[in-house]
Amino acid sequence: MLLEVSKLTSAYAGLVAISDISLQVAEGEIVVVAGANGAGKSTLLQSMIGMVKPRSGQVSFAGERIEALAGHHIAARGLAFVPESKRLFPRLSVADNLRLGSYLHRKKADREAPLEMVFQLFPRLKERLAQRAETLSGGEQQMLAISRALMTRPRMLMLDEPSQGIMPKLVDEIFDAVLAIRASGVTVLLVEQRLAESLQIAERAYVLQTGRVILSGSAAEVRSNPEVRRAYLGI
Ligand code: ATP
């Protein structure tokens, strides 16, 4: 397994937000973590990379414990994270935001190599290189946040609700991009409320409810679960 989360529990001021969560992601997979608002999806991602300090449990990436490492050490090991808030530099240009993603690499050629892929994935970013990030639409900002993460040349990308608050047309582009990213050899952990669309591109899924995994399995298994069909797929 590339990523292995074992019995992870986190709390805010005594209130448990995720409880005893275990999950695995194999190299080359797209795995989705789904759940309603407040189910604990963001807390799970943030606990994996030490942005929230877990109360107990372990997280291994490529065989190494990471939950207590500093963010830049985690990035250097090949795990990139795109938070829900995107964390772009609003006053900087698209080009500069991308450059800041490539800081890990010393050689210019290594810093510039991922640009080709980014422009292929999101041609509209190439047209807007000189534009300030704050002037991009919500969907374009999401594309930039994903692209900046790709500039680190990660082995695995974790995305926190990339489709949130963006136009339906761009949502399709983002999901297509996730498929293309995987095709380029990057493993993906996708946190999403849009379960139907996510199950179309993912191999496996975990469904969270009030901080616990209530269901996991292949995309087909999760899609055919009666509870999921009723609560998430509106069938
Ligand atoms: P959403 O889809 O709305 O982002 P989520 O599934 O990502 O939801 P979390 O944001 O992880 O859920 O929240 C899980 C629980 O933890 C919620 O009850 C939330 O109110 C609580 N919580 C999240 N962040 C904090 C915080 N910084 N301080 C206190 N409680 C928090």
Rg over CA atoms: 17 Å
Count of helices?
Answer: 10
Major sheet: arrangement of strands:
6-7-8-3-9-10
The CATH first-level class comes to Alpha Beta
Question: What is the string of helix and strand elements?
Answer: EEEHEEHEHHHHEHEHEEHH
- Biggest beta sheet summary: 6 strands, mixed
Q: What's the architecture, going by CATH?
A: 3-Layer(aba) Sandwich
CATH topology name, in short, is Rossmann fold
Terminal Cα separation, in Å?
34 Å
Mean pLDDT: 92
Structural class by secondary-structure content: alpha/beta
According to CATH, the homologous superfamily is P-loop containing nucleotide triphosphate hydrolases
GO biological process, one term: L-amino acid transport
GO molecular function, one term: ATP binding
Keywords: Amino-acid transport, ATP-binding, Cell membrane, Membrane, Nucleotide-binding, Transport
Pfam family, one: BCA_ABC_TP_C
What does this structure look like?
This protein has helices spanning 41-48, 71-76, 94-101, 108-121, 123-127, 138-150, 168-183, 195-201, 219-224, 226-231, and strands at residues 3-12, 15-25, 30-34, 56-61, 64-65, 79-82, 156-160, 187-192, 204-209, 212-218. The protein is α/β, with parallel strands linked by helices and 235 residues long. It has a single domain (3-231), classed as Rossmann fold (3-Layer(aba) Sandwich). The longest helix is centred in the last third of the chain and has 16 residues, at 168-183. The structure holds adenosine-5'-triphosphate.
